[in-house]
């Protein structure tokens, strides 16, 4: 199975310089950088290193993912935020788990053996609360529904009804995989602190969108 890694960037120059070279090309057949309008030289850097970079058309993280998946040639898609929060060394583990037969694998910060070094009080509560609510409402057993680092089979993705355009994308996907009764799993993956730049996730604004999609998905069971 061939692998496409999708990395969404919005002013992530400092992190991209550190993280992208660590992605093992032995495991990944294609890397697509989808940029949301960086002004800090991220795009110029990525192009100078030979990466495939394109500018998303519609705004938001979910739109970026959708547009990138449409261009992906791999049988497996890895969503990999290149902001320092995810460890490239874990990519082979995600791929291996998918090859075992799973459709969707989450690199969980809260599975036994993992942790987040990036959480603050609010994000820790939010991650716990949304994961708990998802498991309760959809009879699932996820340990981390919001982490951006995950992988899935493209053939399975094509069965989903993904409508989220912003960071609520990350919430809708585990729900959709569950609703379609696909095979899901998680592996433990430590989340280091982000490297440089600023977080785009805004706890209250993003949290509100996530809550809305959770309710909408529940109402359309
Ligand atoms: N292309 C694109 N990338 C985005 C957008 N919003 C966030 N990102 C990227 O998505 C990744 C995760 O964002 P971040 O704010 O760190 O979220 P968090 O790690 O969940 O707190 C980073 O690499 C961001 O640069 C967007 O609208 N478009
Ligand atoms: Mg981040």
Describe this structure in words.
By secondary structure, this protein is of the alpha/beta class. The chain has one domain: Spore Coat Polysaccharide Biosynthesis Protein SpsA, Chain A (Alpha-Beta Complex), CATH 3.90.550.10. It is built from eight helices and seven strands; from the N terminus they run βαβαβαβαβαβααβα. The protein has helices spanning 13-19, 42-48, 61-71, 91-99, 121-138, 154-157, 169-179, 203-219; strands spanning 3-9, 30-35, 52-55, 76-79, 104-108, 150-153, 184-188. A seven-stranded mixed β-sheet has the order 3-2-1-4-6-5-7, with helices on both faces. The longest helix has 18 residues, at 121-138. It is globular. Bound molecules: guanosine-5'-diphosphate and magnesium ion.
Low-confidence blocks of residues: none
**SSE order:** EHEHEHEHEHEHHEH
CATH superfamily: Spore Coat Polysaccharide Biosynthesis Protein SpsA, Chain A
Main sheet specs: 7 strands, mixed
Instruction: Enumerate the distinct ligands.
Output: guanosine-5'-diphosphate, magnesium ion
The helix fraction, in percent, is 25-40%
What's the Cα radius of gyration?
A: 16 Å
SS class:
alpha/beta
Distance between the termini: 32 Å
Q: What percentage of the residues does DSSP assign to strands (E)?
A: 15-25%
CATH fold topology: Spore Coat Polysaccharide Biosynthesis Protein SpsA, Chain A
The CATH architecture classification is Alpha-Beta Complex
What is the level 1 CATH name? Alpha Beta
Shape: globular
Count of individual beta strands:
7
The averaged pLDDT comes out at 98
- Give the oligomer, counting copies of the same chain as homo and different chains as hetero: single chain
Strand line-up in the sheet with most strands: 3-2-1-4-6-5-7
